[in-house]
Amino acid sequence: MSEPIVKIRGLKKNFGSLQVLKGIDMDIDQGQIFALIGASGSGKSTLLRTINQLEEVTEGEIWFDGELVNQKLPHRQREAHLNRLRQNIGMVFQHFNLFPHLTAIENVTMAPLMLGRVNKAEAIEQAKKLLDKVGLSDRGDYYPSKLSGGQKQRVAIARSLAMNPKLMLFDEVTSALDPELVGEVNRVMKALAEEDMTMIIVTHDLRFAEDVSDHVIFMADGLVVEEGPPSLVFRAPQEDRTKSFLQQVFND
Amino acid sequence: MGLDFSILPAYADILWQGTLWTIALTVLSMFFSLAGGVVFAVLQLSRHAIIRWPVAGFAWLFMGTPLLLQLFLIYFGLVQIGLDLNAFVAGVIALSLHFAVYNSEIIRSAIVAVDKGQYEAARSLGLSQFQAMRKAIVPQAVANVTPALGNMMIALLKESALVSVIGVMELTLSAQRAISDSFRPFEFYIAAGAIYYVLNLGLEQAVRVAERRSAQYR
């Protein structure tokens, strides 16, 4: 059996005196789709953000692709190490965080050009393909301010894909969208899932989680309460906390 | 002795030369003060106190003392330690540093105001701190404060008249030369004032264009 692409051991994270992650273990294999669910404040977004070290961890280990992510290194070396790792870990944010001063296509080409991966012509060609893939081939020259939320988020996905990541992190990417725009973003993610991209999806959209993921993790108070295939976690939860969470959400 | 502006054409040449020097002085100082403003702003946001503090001290010094004194210090003072600058160069240095400090305050607050998510997005793509600043943060910050920077540049154009005291033949000193030759202070000061005004109109237009272009993404 091959080594998991993401391996997390004993992960703890404190914000001051508040412990938001209290010891997480997790193994994600190449091509798996993980859904992280749980109430606000359960620590799922923080967990996601530790994987590419937008949050530093207090204790524990995160391994990505055979490398220890949170190595203790001198500042310069740590920066170089993280820059290299992050080029292989795409991330999509709740509030898109597109660069507003760049057009859609410039948003997509920026990192590959900046990091010297490709020349300009190649970058543009690749960006066009990616925009086409997310259904926005006609919006390349638009600034983000002229795009809808759903379109912005699809550009943001294309921007991440431009680095050819081995892992994609999705942090509540449809939470800030109007309900009628959620579907178009979910479809793009689903298509990505079908291409065997490894994905970790933090979401409040349980129907989507059930539909797309092959492993669900239910978190509460900084701990994994229950995990397993969606059919089990959603249809036959074992833990009381999972049951009451699901009841609450589905009754709304 | 009444006003007689018909005297002016005889001195058109010296006024024109003065205008050109004023433009050269202003354009160069604008460039360096803006570039310096960005550099100081970024340095002031450094994690390292050893970088932050000297820049902060330098800024404090340049904000807390008169430009005229800074000009004297750079032109007359530096000679003593063997740095004999010509007056024009000394003028450009003084104006650039003085306004770079003000610009950096404006730019620094604009950088801080850029949404943190922008920096995270850039870093999550694998860009270094410096690359994220250069490509994602600073362009937005500068676009957000183009009007404020424009006002500083208009002030710079007017303050450039101070450089006349160290003997740069810019517009104000040129007017004075014409006056000491013609004994017509009123006419020539008004003429110089009119030229400053026209230059400023042009600069205002340029600022407006820059404003529109920097904000075209909104």
Helix and strand content put the structural class of chain A at alpha/beta
Biggest interface, residues from each chain: A-B, 31 and 22 residues
Q: What's the pLDDT, averaged over the residues of chain B? A: 93
Helix content of chain B: over 70%
- What Rg of chain A, in angstroms, do the CA atoms define? 18 Å
Number of strands of chain B: 0
Spans of chain B of 5+ residues with little confidence (pLDDT < 50)?
none
Largest sheet of chain B: none
Q: How many helix segments of chain A?
A: 9
Total strands of chain A: 10
Written description of the protein model:
By secondary structure, chain A is α/β, with parallel strands linked by helices. Helix content of chain A is 39%, strand content 24%. Chain A has helices at residues 44-51, 75-86, 104-114, 120-133, 149-161, 179-194, 206-212, 230-235, 240-251, and strands at residues 6-15, 18-28, 33-37, 59-64, 67-68, 89-92, 167-171, 198-202, 215-220, 223-228. Chain A is globular. The model of chain A has no long low-confidence stretch (mean pLDDT 95). Chain B has 218 residues and is mostly helical. In chain B, 78% of the residues lie in helices and 0% in strands. Chain B is built from 9 helices and no strands. Chain B is flat. Chain B starts with 11 loop residues before the first helix and ends with a helix. Classes of the chains: A alpha/beta (252), B mainly alpha (218). At the A-B interface, helix 2, strand 6, helix 3 and helix 5 of A face helix 5 and helix 6 of B.
